[in-house]
Amino acid sequence: MWQGAWHILIYELRKTRWGFLGSLLLALYMAIVLGFLYRFNEMDVSAGEYWAIDFVFLTTLPCLGFVLSRSSMSCWRNDTYSEKLAEWRTMPITVPQIIWGRMLQIAVMLFPLQIIFFLIQYFLVDGLREAISPGAYLLYGLFWFLYSLGMAATYAIWEYGFTGKTYMIVCVLYCIMYMLISTLLSFNGFSIVNSVLTGFENGEWWYLLVGLLVSMTGIAISYVCLKHRLETRSF
């Protein structure tokens, strides 16, 4: 199974190498913009200053696991993912190989792009280097990687399991959900980004367990749902 998933990963990476460049540019843009806008100050959290930062982190970071290409942007009109899967299902490729190939691609995309993102953040965000040690910041980045991996895995359910139109609609619903979460937490004087950051600096390593739980749960749900969906879906 893993050999087949690895072959799918290599094939997809070669096919979408220019799309990786698009995702890299997105990561650079978001990191630089947030680097100048985000100022680390614990006192501002109670004033509701960080709802937008939370929203951008929750929304954008999982998206770095996906290729930003012409075909991905046109899935509403052309339903490119369904066409690709219909072709693959005529080949000697098993459903688990397709699923794990996609999970591997998400992880391989996320890892380097988030390293770049958080490195830029570390040097650009005002007050960040003074507020957190390099070791704690490494764990902070790992937390967001695990979160992103779990959430991106759930996107794959809609990406591979349904039509392009359904996938895009669900992505909008995800954004609305993130907006509601960020706003409600902000009204109650809580910021996810700042709380996790200060938590690691204060030695609260259990945040990593939360990230690991999100990651494992998202991947498990994605695998079960996609396996059932792809085995029963009519192309």
Automatic annotation (TrEMBL):
Stretches that traverse the bilayer: 18-38, 50-68, 106-125, 137-158, 170-193, 205-226
Statement: the UniProt record of this protein carries the keyword Membrane: yes
Keywords: Membrane, Transmembrane, Transmembrane helix
Superkingdom of origin organism: Bacteria
Protein name: ABC transporter permease
Source organism per UniProt: Paenibacillus sp. BIHB 4019
